[in-house]
Structures are given as C-alpha cells and as structure tokens.
Batch of 2 targets.
Target 1
Amino acid sequence: MKLLEERISKDGVVKKGNVLKVDSFLNHQLDIKLYNEMGKEFKRLFADKNITKILTIEASGIGIAAITAQYFDVPVVFAKKSQSINLDGSTYNTKIQSFTHNRVYDVIVSKKYLSSDDHVLIIDDFLANGCAVNGLIEIIESSGASIEGIGIAIEKGFQDGGKSLRERGYQVESLAIVESMNDETGEIIFRH
Amino acid sequence: MKLLEERISKDGVVKKGNVLKVDSFLNHQLDIKLYNEMGKEFKRLFADKNITKILTIEASGIGIAAITAQYFDVPVVFAKKSQSINLDGSTYNTKIQSFTHNRVYDVIVSKKYLSSDDHVLIIDDFLANGCAVNGLIEIIESSGASIEGIGIAIEKGFQDGGKSLRERGYQVESLAIVESMNDETGEIIFRH
C-alpha cells in the first residue's frame, strides 16, 4: 500500500537491532485518516471472505482493528494480556513471547466471544517472527472458529513470521513489507 | 445516551464489589456500531471546543478514542502502561493506581506527541474514582496543552471521580451515569 510505505519512509525511524519506530502515526500517536485508508484496503484484500469477527491483541492492534471493523460491519474482540491466568475454564488461553518487552505474556479471550460459528480475520500492527499471530491462531483453533485471513500493517519481511504463515496456507496480507532497513543510513527498502 | 443505557441494562452484568461487566460490547468484544454512535455523541457534546488531539490510555480506551477521532478529524495519542519508566527525559510520566488490577502502573506519553499548542479531549471507557483521568490530566499539564474536556462512556456516579473533576471546572460528559446497581437483583439505575 503506497500511502503506508510513503509514510514509513517519511516518518519511520530505523534503530539498532532491527527496530522500526512508527510511534508518530501507527502505535503511540494514531493517524486515524491513515487508519481509515488501511481499513478500506483490508476490506478490498479480503472482499471475498465471509468475516464475522475481527480478532486482535492489546494494545497496538485495537485502533486498527476498530477502524477496520467499520468496513466489514463486524465486532472486534481483543485478546487481553493477563496478569494472572484465568483457570476457571471460561477463557481460551495461550502464551505469547514478546521480544520487544523480553517477557512471556499469558493471553486470554473469553469463550463467550469466539465460537465455532465465527469466521475470523486477525488484524495486528506488526508481523515479525509471528509470535503474536501464532498465539491468536491457537486461541481461534481452541474455539473451533475458522481463520479467514491475517491482515497486518507492517511486516518485517526479513524475519520469518510471514513466510511461515503463508507456507501453512494462511492468506496473509501485509500493507507494507519491509525487505531490509539500515540503521546507519535510515534507508528502508520495501518488497513488492 | 439512551442507546448506551439500554445496552448496559440489557447486556451489563452487576457483580459483587460494585463491578459492572460490559465485556460483551464495550471492553473485550467491541460493538463498533455502538462506538460510532458514541463518537457522534461526543462530537455533539464538545461541538464548541477546538480539539486538536484525543488522549486516552491503553487498552480499553483505544477503540473508543479511535472511532471518536473520526468525528473530530484529529489524531489519537494513547498513554502507555510502562514496564520500566523511561527516565531519559523524552516522556511525560505519571503513576496510576488501578483498583481493578490492584497495582500501580507507570504511565508514559512521548513528549513528541503533546505540546503546549494542543487542545486535548480525554476519552476513556470508565470513570469511577478518577485515577486514570487524573493521571492523564497530570500528563497534559506537564506538556502545557489545554484540557478541553473529558468524555467517558460509563461513569459510576456513586464513586466520586466525576464529582471531583466537575468541581475542579472540567467539562465531563459521561454517556451513561450509573446512579446505583444491585448485584443481587441485577438492577441498574441511571442518573438523568
């Protein structure tokens, strides 16, 4: 998606350790006009799918999921990072490794909000090694719902999350795929 | 707001300890159509204000803030609950007590995204004792920005957060104010 690539080139900051900071428009300050264009693009990319629910994970996925949900006319469910895992059987649980925060989160979704009747579109801001998306897939599989696709704002194409998900047969649509980036020159090259 | 009150009466669950569960439409599963009506109502209530930015706090405020921002045509900034407070001077910091989670969070906003030129509308899902909103006010005051108003989905009118904020002169607009609720009968009475 050209608009997003241009914005990443203009306002994204490449930091050491393959970190791409997009705080100014994507995941701390949110450019809602850009979000709307992203939502429309997800709708175009998944137009042939019968989506009944969008699943994301707190916190950065929520804004994109909420705006995107308007174009699909479906509710959003966001998976919660739990302090203490709920063991009373009322939630689907998984664990997600966060490399950014260097810790493992327990992640939960109430069983009330995902069922075998659901056709789910996963939405998230970033896809790198795929830990978050794989956790959400595990939760959806526990519920018996169908996974219709995975919509990502920015994929780090040089990490293997996207490749592995596509090999498993999922429709993964990333609005911008970073092929490589250079923390010395600040250059970002996109895959097309 | 009648639509929200009706939804709370229909789908809200009153639990012991003055807990009101609205998981099914407000803060775990998100009814985006309802969110849009809430966003329109916030725009009506703050129509005379010159808003340049919406500030909320992760995670439950983000969806409401993102949808509402469309009606004001401004960006959203969400305050982050930080694992480890950033002491390099690039963030506004405060501490917020969460009674729900029985802990104190360090909360940060990058200085890049709030400045003395900003006119800020605070948006959040719940207002009870006011800890979260007071933390956001502290952050806005550190930045020198103006606070134009506070928009809340559900206020617990029997706790003193809203009263105290109104006494300090803030325009607080809560779309539903719960006057009282009964965890034995499930009855919820609204203030009008």
Target 2
Amino acid sequence: MNAEIIAVGSEMLTPERVDTNSLYLTAELNKIGVEVAAKSVIGDDRERLAEAVRRAVARVPILILSGGLGPTEDDLTREAVALALDRKLLFSEEIAAALERRFAQARRKMAEINRRQALVIEGAAVLPNDRGTAPGQWVEESGAVVMLLPGPPHELNAMFERQCLPRLARIVPRLAIRTLFLRVAGMSESDLDQLIAPVYKKYENPATTILAANGDIQIHLRARCATPAEADALLAEVGAPIEALLGDRIYSRNGDPLEAILGGLLRQNHATVSVAESCTGGMLGERFTSVPGSSDYFLGGFITYTNAMKIEMLGVLPEMLEQFGAVSKETAEAMALGARRRTGSTYALSITGEAGPDPGGKAPVGTVYVGLADAAGALAVDRQFLGDRQRIRTFTTQMALDLLRRRITRA
Amino acid sequence: MNAEIIAVGSEMLTPERVDTNSLYLTAELNKIGVEVAAKSVIGDDRERLAEAVRRAVARVPILILSGGLGPTEDDLTREAVALALDRKLLFSEEIAAALERRFAQARRKMAEINRRQALVIEGAAVLPNDRGTAPGQWVEESGAVVMLLPGPPHELNAMFERQCLPRLARIVPRLAIRTLFLRVAGMSESDLDQLIAPVYKKYENPATTILAANGDIQIHLRARCATPAEADALLAEVGAPIEALLGDRIYSRNGDPLEAILGGLLRQNHATVSVAESCTGGMLGERFTSVPGSSDYFLGGFITYTNAMKIEMLGVLPEMLEQFGAVSKETAEAMALGARRRTGSTYALSITGEAGPDPGGKAPVGTVYVGLADAAGALAVDRQFLGDRQRIRTFTTQMALDLLRRRITRA
C-alpha cells in the first residue's frame, strides 16, 4: 500500500528549511507496511495545491498534508482540498466554541481571523488538537483517505499517533516487516551492485536499497510478509547468498559504523592502537575517538604533516624520505613502525598521501598509502582515489580502518 | 521567474534521508532572483517520474532533477525525462570513452552497467562531471529548461555552479542582487539575534537570514534592487550598524570557514602552528589540514588520548596530572607548551576536555579547556558546552581556532 505526503507553505521552500514532518510520517507509515511513493513541498498557492491533491488521490490510497491550517490568508490547505474534492467548506460552531475556550484559558481574546480555523470540509471527521489551535481533518473519498494535519511537529506527531494511526489500522492490511541491514567496506558501489544484483533482482520482496557514501556502503533488505516467521524466512533465503558473495567485506550487521565495529574488535582482543597521519591531518584519530569509550583501546597519535615532523616524531629516516618520497610505501611503513614503537600500542596505522588539489611532490593527486604495523612487522597498501580533497581524505581513513579490521578478524 | 526541483530515488523516501540538494539549489536560484514554487521527491518509478516532469515543464520555465543518473537499473532519470519529452536516448561514444578513461585512471575496469551512464537525451547538452562518473544533461523544451544533475552533493554543486548558472544567466531576467555575508564565532545564536535584530527587523529588503551550526553563525543580508549601485548602497546602510555591533567577533566576510581565515593569517604572519589534542582526538588537526596549502603553516600535532601519552609525547609532568587532573587549565597549558617545544612552531593550540557521554574523571561532561602557547608563554580558557559528544568536540575546535585568530589579529 502506498502513500504520498505534501508539506504546505512557502516558508518550507526557503534554503534553510527542511520538511522533517515527512520523515516522522514515513517512519510511522513504514512500520505498518505502507510505503511513501512520493513527497512534495508546495507553496501557498490554492490552485497548484488543489491540482496536486487531485492527482495524488487518483494515484494512492493515502494522502497526508501537513501545514497550512493556521488562521491567516496564506493558510490554504482547507480550501485547496475542498476545491480538489469538489466539496463545500462548512463553518463548525462546535470548533469555533472550542477555539474561544482555548483562547479564554490563555486569557487572550480570539482574533476574528481564527474563525477560519473552524472551517471543515463537507463530510470530514474533525481531529481535535490539544497542543495548538488548528484542528486536523480526516476525509475519505472513493477509496482514498486524505489527512490534513497541522505543521508544528509536536502537534502533528501527537495527532497522527493518537487519531490517525488507529483509523489507518482499519484500512491497511496487517503486515509483518523485518529488515536485514549490512554495511560493507572496501568496494565501489558499482562493483558491489554487479556482484549482488543477480541475487536481489530476482525478488520484489524483500525490497533492496543500496546507499553509498564516503567509501561506505549500506545494504537494506526489507521483507514484508503476513507473519514474522515468513518475513524472517524470506530474509534468510535472500540474505544468505548475498552474505556469501560479500564475505568478510561485510563489517557490520547492526548499523554501527566501521570505527565502532573496529573499536569493539580491539576491546575484545585486549589490543590497543595508535595512528600516524600525514595528509588526513588527524581525521583517522578523530574517527577512532568519535566512539564513546574509545579510550579503552585508542592510545593516541602523531600528526606529521611535514617531513621534519615525520623524522622527529616518528623516527622516519631522512635518507628514506629523500630516496622514496613522503608519499611512498616505505614511508607509510616507517611511520606505522614509528608510531607503534613510540606509543607501545599493539597496532599502529599510518596514512600518507597526496590529497590535492595541487600535487605537492612526485605522486599524482589521489595517491595514498596506508601502513599497518604490529608485532610481526609492517606492511603498506596503496590506492588511487578520485575526487576532491575531502573525499580522498575520507576514503583513505575508511581504507585504514578496514585494513586493521580485516587484519584482526583474519588473525 | 519560478523553478521546481525534483529529487529522484527511493532511498530519498526513507525516514533517514533528507533532500539537501534542494536547499543548495534554492539558495543559488534565489541569488539570481528565481523562486522555487514547489519541490518533490519521487521514487524509482519511470512512469510516475515522467508524469511529474511533464507537468512541471508545463508549469514553470526551470526544472531541476537531482539523482537517478547512476549506472544501475534503478537509475531512471534519463529514461523518465526522455519519455516525458518524447525524445530518444542516444548512446554517446564520447561519454563512454571518458568513463573508460576515468576508470583506467583509478586502475579499475569499468563495469558493463556503467555504459548506461553514456545515454544522452536527444538534443541535450552534456554537462561533464569531474567529480564522479555521472555526466549531467541540459535539455531545452518549448521555452523551458530541464536540468539532470547527479545526486552526490559535491558533484551536483560543482556542476550547477560551473555549468548551469552561466547558462541560466542567459535566460533569467537580470535583477541586481547583492549579498553581505558575515561569519561570526564565539557567540550563541540567541545572543547574536538579540544584539542585531533591532537593526535588521526594520528592513524587508535586504532580507536577513541567520544560520547557526557547530558554534559558527552565518549572517546573510540579501538586497535585491534594480541596479547594483542601489543594492550596494542598501547593504552598506544596513550592514554598517550590524558590523559595528559585532566588532571582531566577525571573522569572515567572504564565506571562508574559520580554519581557512586563520590559515591566511598565519601565512601572512609567516607563523606556524601545531596542535595537542585529547578529547577531540585529531579533529583540530583535521580542520587545519582540510584547507588546501595548509602545509605552509601547519606543522603537525600530537593526539594524546591517555595520560601516558600526554607525559611521553608532550612532557606533561605526572605530578601535575595527578594534582589537577587531565581536564584542567594546568594540563591544557602544559600540553600547548609541550607541543610548541617539540615542534618548534610559532603557536601551539591544545584541547583537553570531557566529551562524554559518561564522565571519565572529576570534570562534568561538556567541560573543556583550550590552551594556547607562543613565545610569551601559555594561557588556557575553559568553557562548558551542552550536547552530545560530537557537538562538544566540534564546538571546542571552533573555540580553539577562534582563540588563536583573536590572538593574532589583536597582536
């Protein structure tokens, strides 16, 4: 079953405002098995809004409008919906009296314009609002339902939860929904998709969503079935081959980010870690320490942005820097060994690279080396990333965290 | 002149995702005098999307679509727009070759599905994408223009700024718009508003917007007049009293962030800086080095997350840590002095604090100390921040950068 959501108000079309009501409504609708097929924000324009309502009602059985129920002339939702459904607006003495009482309670006189809020669409059920002046409305029209809800989130949330969800339960078929959530590192989105598409494309249910950002990929499989047992069985059926294909590139099954998963592994193994960063300038340390309790395993690190600092803080040999350059496998290994030696950590990660935008040395922009040192010695891996400075730096920290994660899980 | 914006992708209809591209696009459109009349998010549904495009093109002269240009079968924007405008999709050998080169640069083989990204709508101008694989498209249709832009914000922003705005300038009637853009540190949003509201509330034009995030406040005054001279005069009239009230709390008049402004001051003064970070774990170094060319003044730093590291890396005295604790004025000063001594930098900044969520020592969560050392010695200032771990850490780095900025500008 599908729904559409419309937020009403020209103020929602400024560069600063985001329609957060639709996020709340989407979460609540998804919980009862309703998908949001589209959402929009429409300014204070009666005809434009009426057109949008008319088309949405023809497409989906559930339409929710938020905002535009205030007392001013800009508040056009009531009129637009009445126009779209070709119904009258009726003045409700009952609502007007309730509004008068509300104002009296606050020892204020009700302004004449507030009487607009007592206009009800012919045939609509009124949804009382105990947190504000604008009552909501629930209108049924040839198999579809249109909800008019107030814009302020605390009013909308309470009204939707207490008055709309119980009514929706009578309309929406009961469904059990289960989600499988995987996070993957060390692959591009297109490589991953090519690998697993042959599996998930065979199924409409569960629905698969793939999200990629900053070298991190999230895979959501959402199964909707008549019973929880069926949904779980379906997820197992589709999830198993996907998990087999991705193997240990899957780092998280609970939604936790890579730095938290790696932190958990370090803690479990009573291991500690330190870092030595050049082009990322502290970003790797920042990610480790963004996790509460990271002091259990993160000791500290060195931001060695210049060659002199690499020599002094980490003991990298000047002749090595001279021979191989700062952006090299040899320097990455020496940095990791130096950080481990100076902090006494179980593991040390190092990063050196060319983040751009202008190349500083011989290496092309986007070249990075990540070093890893432990009791057995050091190794370094290199990659060539595309994109701007921030992207290259973020991808490199992701690569470093994943390198250590795999080292620990494969040990 | 009006525009509509459509974000494409079922993943944008989940409870977690917000279409931020439309905010950037709205800001840029408003600057050239174009208002956004409506915006929407539509899932991966070719017919639904084609219908929306058809109707939008009939309503407004500018339609911008973001997302859905990726290589997978879910990426339907190209096909939907072609369908809506009743045009063919043509395979471009040129784009395919450019994609192949891009993959070769990254030493990867292009997946077969990426060839979908070389499909161009008949008659469209191709907008090259130097930050990702998906090229954009610019299609003109009976007085309207339709732009197809990639979803990732850093790709969309660059493409819109460099390739769409110059083309739009030929279509949109000229209105002189001038913006005064101030960035302020070291104040809360409500304190700032109380101070300057009596000035800006008197004017509808220029329009004033105040945005606060992460301890940083941006003030935008936008004047729209018939001529540039009129707009400049109006901005001067309203801007002068605001600038006088804020004084040196204004750190930027060109939009540059604090780390870039401070970097410029350091470079001008032939000065260098190093950092010593505890609770921020590298975030201050990361901010310094996010600025291209920061190797001119940023030497490096120490992430001393444990007491042992503070002692070994920075020479903080164990008895001082014992007596005052790690989160103290004395420790902050000793950390800054240690970083300066060990790197030989002109200035050193240090951060120690309790970022939470659970208090680690005696200091309550949110207590932070920032130390500053230079040739004259060291000082430390403290603050108590509210909020979660990430907020406390971000505010603290902002405070540290601003402390050094004021030291240099007042010297």
